[in-house]
Specification:
By secondary structure, the chain is of the alpha+beta class. 26% of the residues lie in helices and 43% in strands. A hairpin with a 5-residue loop joins strand 5 and strand 6. The protein is globular.
Length: 167
């Protein structure tokens, strides 16, 4: 079911539509009177109560990320991961379609994942479900954002809204 919400940072003609697309999956879209030209889709995933050992194993995370890209059907270009001291990993897999990234907090059993793609035919949900399984997460939250152009008026509004970024 779609549920329009007014948001204070948008013009009065703008709405945000929140809908449940898949189990624990939200689709959030900004709707403006002008049709959005979608250039890409961004999937954000929150994984909770994960296996803490996996979250701190850089080679295991590298393997999971590369396999996730393959499950998506993406074309891998490169990957770079870094292990922090005393724990935690950040990494990116660059794909021809854009990127996958992950940030882990083993001390909290938490991982944040991002998949950005300009190819809507990728198996994005399969990728997210694979990560859920491999990280042994007890729960998850998925969010999808359509990214793109929504006319010059909305781009000007975002450019002038420095209060959104700064607190």
């Amino acid at each position: 079911m779609l549920r329009p919400l007014k948001h204070s940072h948008f013009n009065s003609q703008d709405d945000i539509i929140v809908s449940k697309v898949h189990t624990h999956f939200l689709l959030i879209q900004k709707i403006n009177s002008k049709k959005m030209q979608v250039l890409g889709e961004q999937f954000l995933a929150e994984y909770y109560d994960c296996n803490r050992t996996i979250l701190d194993d850089i080679e295991k995370i590298r393997s999971i990320m590369l396999q996730a890209a393959n499950i998506c059907g993406a074309t891998v270009i490169d990957s770079k991961l870094h292990r922090f001291s005393p724990y935690g990993i950040s990494g990116i897999v660059m794909i021809a379609e854009s990127h996958l990234s992950i940030h882990t907090w083993p001390e909290y059993g938490y991982a944040a994942f991002d998949l950005f793609t300009c190819n809507p035919k990728l198996n994005s949900v399969g990728c997210l479900e694979y990560l859920h399984s491999e990280l042994e997460a007890k729960s998850q939250l998925y969010t999808k954002l359509n990214r793109g152009l929504n006319g010059l008026e909305s781009q000007k509004n975002v450019a002038n809204s420095s209060d959104i970024v700064r607190k």
